[in-house]
Amino acid sequence: MRRSFRIRSQASRQSFRLRSRASRTRAVALTGLPLAAVLVLVAFVARPALAATQLETPTQLQAVHIADRSADLWWSYDPNHREDVVQRRVNNVWQEYGRSAGGALALTNLTPGTTYTFRVYSVASPYTGHSNSAPSAPITFTTLAAPDSVPPSTPPTPIFSSITTMSVNVYWGESTDNVQVTGYYLQQLIGGVWTTIRTVGPGGRFQSVYGLTPNTTYQFAAIAFDAQGNQSPRAVPGSVTTLASTATATCRVQTILFGTNYSVWITVINTTSVTLSGWTIQFALPAHMSASPVNGTITRTATGGTFTPAFFYTNIGPGGQANVGLQGGGTPFVAPTGFTLGGTPCTTV
Q1: Would you state the pLDDT for residue 49?
Q2: What is the pLDDT of residues 38-88, one digit of tens each?
C-alpha cells in the first residue's frame, strides 16, 4: 500500500513540475517582450471582435443608351466602398459580369432583341470596419432588335454672347435620341452653302468663333448625330451681327444691387483696329462705400476711384475683350456710377 502511495506521489510531483515548467516557459516568453507589447497582446486577446458596418446598398440602378448590342449601367453607391460588382442573372443564377469603382459600367457584345437582368453590390475595402453591401434591386431591359435607325431630335436655334468685332460665342440646347446623342456639327452659312466648321461631342455645345469681319451678319445652325451616324434635321438658323469698328474701345457695365451691397461687372471690348494698352476705368463712389476689385486693382479717391486691370488684361488685341468688376457695400447705401473708359462713358446694360 505504501509503495502504491509513493508511486502516486511521485507521479503527482512530476506532473506539478511539468505544469510549473510550462508556466515558467510562458512567463519567460512574455518577459522577453516590451511591456507595451505585452499589454497590447493581452488587450487584443481579451477584446471581443466588433461587428463590421455593412455598406449602404447601391441605389438608382438604371440602364441607359440601350442599343442593339450595347447599353450603359448607372447607379449610386456608398462612398466607403472599394468597388462595385455588377451581376447578371443567367438561368436564375446570379453571375459576375464586371466591376467598377465609378458607379457606371458599359455593357458590350449584347445580343439584339434580348432581355437582360442586372444588379450590383458594393465591396468593402479591408481593415475599414465595413462589410459588403446587400445587392441592389435588379433592373431588366431589352436591347433593340436591330441597329438604331432613329435620328436625334432637331437642336434648338443657336443663341449668341460675347459679341465683338471679330468673334462671337455660339451656344445651342441639347437634342434627344432614343439611344444617345454622340455629337453635333456646327455649321455656318458661307457663300450660300451650309458648311460644317466644327464637329464636337455632346458636351461641346458652347463654341467660340473667331476671324469674323466687323459689322457683318452671320448665320449658324447645328445638326445632331448618334453612334450609328443618324443625323437630325438642321436647326433653325440663328443670326448674329458683329460689332462695328470704332475709333475708341467700348465698355458695358452691369450693376447688381442686393441690400446695402453691390456687384458691378464691366466688359471692355476693343472695337478698334489696334491693340488697346494701358487702359483704366474711372468711376464715382463716396468714400464710405467699400470697393473690392475683380481681375485688377483699385485706387480710391474721396469721390470715386480708378480700376486698373490685372496683367493678363493689360493689352487687348483688336476684337478682344476683358471681363472685370468691383464689389462692395456700405451705409447709407450709394451705388457706384459714372463709369468711363479713357474718358468715354460706358454703356449700362
Answers
A1: 52
A2: 444 444 444 555 678 999 999 999 999 999 999 999 999 999 999 999 999
Task: Domain 250-348: state its class.
Answer: mainly beta
- Mean pLDDT score of the chain, rounded to an integer? 90
Decide if 67 contacts 108 (C-beta within 8 A).
Answer: no
CA dihedral of residues 301, 306, 307, 310 (deg, nearest 10): -100
DSSP 295: S
Q: How far is CA 344 from CA 169, 264, 275, 281, 303, in A?
A: 26, 18, 17, 10, 18
Q: What is the structure's pLDDT at 19?
A: 46
Give the containing element (helix H, strand E) for 106. Answer: strand 104-107
Burial class (CB in 10 A: 0-12, 13-18, 19+), 214: middle
pLDDT at 228 over 50: yes
CATH of 159-241, one of 2.60.40.10, 3.40.50.11540, 3.40.50.2000, 3.40.50.1980: 2.60.40.10
**For range 115-131, the mean pLDDT:** 96
What ranges do the domains of the chain cover? 53-142, 159-241, 250-348
Burial of 149 (0-12, 13-18, 19+ CB in 10 A): exposed
- Architecture in CATH for domain 53-142: Sandwich (2.60)
What is 182-239 written as a DSSP string?
A: EEEEEEEEETTEEEEEEEE-TT--EEEE-SPPTT-EEEEEEEEEETT--BPPPPPPEE
Residues counted in the chain: 349
Q: Look-up: residue for cell 446694360?
A: 349
**Helix (H), strand (E) counts: the chain:** 2, 28
SS3 for 50?
Answer: coil
- Nearest by Cα to 343 from 294, 306, 316: 306
Q: What's the pLDDT at 333?
A: 98
**Three-class SS of residue 26?**
helix
